[in-house]
Specification:
With about 230 residues, the protein is α+β, with helices and mostly antiparallel strands. The chain has two domains: about 5-130, Fervidobacterium nodosum Rt17-B1 like (Heat Shock Protein 90), CATH 3.30.565.40; about 135-225, Actin, Chain A, domain 4. About 25% of the residues lie in helices and about 35% in strands. The chain has four helices and ten strands. The chain has a seven-stranded mixed beta sheet, sandwiched between helices. A three-stranded antiparallel beta sheet has the order 8-9-10, covered by helices on one side. The longest helix is centred in the N-terminal third of the chain and has 24 residues, at about 50-75. It is flat and about 60 Å long. The N and C termini lie far apart (about 40 Å). Mean pLDDT is about 90; it is low at about 1-20.
């Protein structure tokens, strides 16, 4: 169920059927227009796996509740321009039966702020179950070092980036590699805005080829995701 805070404004939930790679799902849409804020959310539901639906729903609720809390606590001047808002869109970069990657893209604006706050929220599933990066690899493998080595080299090809900023934000720690997506050719690593570069550059995405970490993967994961 969606947050009860939705009762504060006008709420509309509709389901629009779509399909991806012959696997049906639907889009849940929520529109709330309140005197002090606007919320517009679109996210997928009705997958074959209820675990997928529930995980997505929990993430959306968490995002929405965080935004409502920020809206209530904002202390902008009465004559500050703009209106508090939250919008959410999604894409499905990878889907093969019950193995898929979903990318939620949120934009939150607080009245009077210089610019909106953007957040990328990837969710990944294998056989209908949510997985973390560590779940993909053998327990004794140094997969973070492999991902970091390629990612850092790719990021440093941009000569406008500060090398220390890049290296600090992409060092081989679990904290720096929380956001990622399955890709037919490997893993897409996502670095948040400010993590490895200034705001103006936005989030950075690095595709790490499968060949760079294939030998570190669990066999069942390699077969389920890449069919190898």
């Amino acid at each position: 169920m969606l947050s009860r805070h939705l009762l504060l404004g006008f709420s509309l939930i509709c389901m629009v059927f779509a399909a991806s790679q012959s696997r049906a799902f639907s889009t849940a849409s929520v529109e709330i227009h309140h005197p002090s804020y606007d919320i517009s959310l679109r996210y997928p539901q009705q997958f074959e796996s209820t675990e997928i639906d529930e995980t997505i729903e929990q993430q959306v609720q968490k995002l929405q509740q965080k935004a409502l809390s920020r809206f209530k606590s904002e202390n902008a001047a009465e004559d500050a321009p703009g209106k508090n808002s939250l919008s959410l869109q999604y894409t499905i970069p990878y889907q093969e039966h019950l193995t898929l990657s979903l990318l939620l893209t949120a934009e939150m604006y607080l009245r009077g702020a210089a610019h909106p706050y953007h957040q990328l929220l990837p969710l990944n599933f294998v056989d209908g179950q949510p997985v973390k990066l560590a779940d993909l690899f053998n327990a004794d493998s140094d997969y973070l070092a492999a991902l970091a080595s390629f990612s850092q080299s790719a990021l440093l090809e941009n000569k406008n980036f500060d090398a220390k900023w890049v290296l600090d934000g992409s060092s081989p720690s679990a904290e720096h590699y929380q956001k990622w997506l399955f890709h037919p050719d490997g893993l897409m690593i996502i670095f948040d805005t400010y993590q490895v570069a200034p705001y103006v550059n936005g989030p950075q995405k690095i595709l790490v080829p499968l060949s760079k970490f294939s030998g570190l993967l669990k066999k069942d994961i390699k077969q389920a995701v890449w069919g190898r």
